[in-house]
Write a structure and sequence with these properties.
The structure holds 2 protein chains of 2 kinds. By secondary structure, chain A is mainly beta. In chain A, 0% of the residues lie in helices and 51% in strands. In chain A, the strands form 2 sheets. In chain A, strands 2, 4, 5, 6, 9, 10 and 11 form a 7-stranded mixed sheet that branches. In chain A, 37% of the residues are buried. The model of chain A has no long low-confidence stretch (mean pLDDT 95). Chain B is mainly beta. Chain B has strands at residues 4-7, 10-14, 19-25, 33-38, 45-50, 56-59, 62-67, 72-77, 86-92, 102-103, 107-112. In chain B, strands 2, 4, 5, 9, 10 and 11 form a 6-stranded mixed sheet that branches. Chain B has a 5-stranded antiparallel sheet with strand order 1-3-8-7-6, with no helix packed on it. The chains are: A mainly beta, B mainly beta. The A-B interface holds A 4, 31, 33, 35, 40-45, 48, 50, 56, 58-59, 90, 92, 96-106 and B 6, 9, 31-32, 34, 36, 41-46, 49, 89, 91, 93-95, 98-106.
């Protein structure tokens, strides 16, 4: 049972490049989330989804887009990467809201 | 505005001692308060959680104390062990805010043997 799997684990981008981070969960969870983690700032929610085909903005959505075409997958896109988007990105999922969230191992993204 | 404020930023405790991490929140609608533990290079994992209908919850060496009137909750780690050395995050959520989790800024705990 893999849980929450993030791809890739590491990536270096040049300013202005685009990329997509993939999150896959095998627990049939309804809710999925994308967070970024920066030193001294904890985890901040970028976007989340409460079910297949739905997305909503979190605390820091600017510069990111998401899609949830399949229940098990939640994609995070950066259209034009900026150095300020250098961070560790975590995907999480939960059965419903206000319950335990299961996190992936993280993606370390560096934008140069 | 930080929805959940966590302190201290770092904590050093001797083996066998008690580790205490505090969090305060603003939104009185919050109704789920989890604590997550994160080891280097790993994603956070749920340690223990509480809902506001109780003032305390204990699971092994880990206890959450909850003070609804003061809008504060804390994590107590009894008999702290070197293996407890990790970063701890408190969080809060509620339906009113779309069930988003608002996390504290984290506490880096080091337990000295």
């Amino acid at each position: 049972n893999a849980g929450v799997t993030q791809t890739p684990k590491f990536r270096v981008l040049k300013t202005g490049q685009s990329m997509t981070l993939l999150c896959a969960q095998d627990m049939n969870h309804e809710y999925m989330y994308w967070y970024r983690q920066d030193p001294g700032m904890g985890l901040r929610l970028i976007h989340y989804s409460v079910g297949e085909g739905t997305t909503a903005k979190g605390e820091v959505p600017d510069g990111y887009n998401v899609s949830r075409l399949k229940k098990q997958n939640f994609l995070l896109g950066l259209e034009s990467a900026a150095p300020s988007q250098t961070s560790v990105y975590f995907c999480a999922s939960s059965w419903v809201g206000n319950t335990e969230a299961f996190f992936g191992q993280g993606t370390r993204l560096t934008v140069v | 505005q930080q929805q959940v404020k966590q302190s201290p930023q770092s904590l050093i405790v001797q083996k066998g001692g008690i580790s205490i991490i505090n969090c305060a929140y603003e939104n009185t609608a919050f109704d789920y308060f989890p604590w997550y533990q994160q080891f280097p290079g790993k994603g956070p994992a749920l340690l223990i959680a509480i809902r506001p209908d109780v003032s305390e919850k204990k699971e092994g060496r880990f206890t959450i104390s909850f003070n609804k009137s003061a809008k504060q909750f804390s994590l107590h780690i009894m008999d702290s062990q070197p293996g407890d050395s990790a970063t701890y995050f408190c969080a809060a959520s509620c339906m009113e805010t779309g069930n988003q989790f608002y996390f504290g800024t984290g506490t880096s705990l080091t337990v000295i043997p």
